[in-house]
Amino acid sequence: MNFLDGSLHPENQEKLVITAAPYGPEWAPEDLPAGEIPVTMAEQVQMAVDCYNAGATVLHVHAREDDGHGSKRLSRFNELLDRLRSAVPDMILQVGGSISFAPENEGEAAKWLSDDTRHMLAELQPTPDQVTIAINTNQMNIVEQMTAADIAGTSVEDPALYRAYREMTIPAGPEWVEEHIRRLSANGIQTHFQLASINQLETVERMMRRGVSNVPLILTWVAIGGGFDAPNIYNLANFVRAVPDGAVLTLETSMLNVLPLNTMAIAMGLHVRCGTEDNIWTQDRSAKMGSVAQIEQLVRISEEMSRPIANGQEARRIYRIGEFYKSADETLARNGFAPNRQAGQRGFLRHAAE
Fold it and tell me: Residue 90 and residue 52: Cα distance in Å, rounded?
């Protein structure tokens, strides 16, 4: 991404898109004050409404059963999506492709669904706007950067649960990834890339150059350590510089890193994500902080910087919802990559022309 003179001026930036991740699948409902982790279907829908009213226009969707456990049933997701479409029609509904990574019973591993079952996310009805996807099988140790203070008094203090999250991996081999993107696109669902490092971004670019991923490059840099990049300025700058100008980039991290990284994103003209899936504390750890309060905090910061918050329709335009491409050439051009090299071409290539 280029940062020309004036790129930090709010009049030259897109409005801010806030993604809310309020369903906190790694936490037990009792880990936060009552109501902050919604359990019943009515509570899950009301949480989406509250997040939208606070300023979020993208909803990262996980679902729970009535007993509080994370749901592995796609029928439960269908029910939730149907109710969300009525309750928050302007929100971009983004189903988390890791929908059941939380262990179901004490001592069990934190496993994602099987490859075949995850493909069924493309069959959800009503269709979500997006499904997130990981690239390249990778370690996903979500507790590596967490401190004792981060998990104090929560269910993750339990050694068996802590180990389950520590040993978690993401299954995302190339054959499965390409087929998953094909199925999502065929059903009009946008792929949202959740990328852990620059090498995964390079894999996405290669897929686009081969014509097997003809979609907008809407992505999140997930800087949580444990097999992912750490949220430091060097990793951030290196990743952002590699992202092409036509992409839409959101930043994501965990716990007390969330607010500083999101503040950087707001200043840089990028986009933000917050919620109990990412953090549960105020910055001084004096109290637990729910998703709505986190959204309201980012709205205040963005307003101080005179960067307006995108409404639902503006977020859909920025995220290019409903946009798909017919060829590798069109994909490269729309996302701001250089074109593929033609036979006999020498030297550096200019950016692809739309």
Answer: 9
Question: Residue 93 forms beta bridges with which residues?
Answer: 59
Instruction: Give Dmax over CA atoms of the chain in angstroms.
Output: 65
Global confidence as pTM: 0.95
Cis peptide before 126 (omega within 30 of 0): yes
- The residue whose two tokens read 């971009």 is 92
Which tokens is 20 given? 């809310």
Q: Residue 354: what pLDDT?
A: 67
Question: Cα(263)–Cα(267) distance, rounded to whole angstroms?
Answer: 6
Kindly report, residue by residue over 248-298, the tens digit of the pLDDT.
999 999 999 999 999 999 999 999 999 999 999 999 999 999 999 999 999
Q: DSSP labels for 250-283?
A: EEEE-GGGHHHHHHHHHHHT-EEEESTTT--B-T
Task: Output the CA–CA distances (angstroms, integers) from residue 16 to 40, 229, 270, 298, in the order listed.
Answer: 30, 24, 7, 10
AA letter at 302: S
* Mean pLDDT, all residues of the chain: 94
Q: Is 238 helix (H, G, I), strand (E, B) or coil?
A: helix
- Residues 338-350 have pLDDT tens digits of 999 998 988 888 8
Numbers of helices and strands, H then E, in the chain: 12, 10
Task: Give the separation between CA 305 and CA 301, rounded to whole angstroms.
Answer: 6
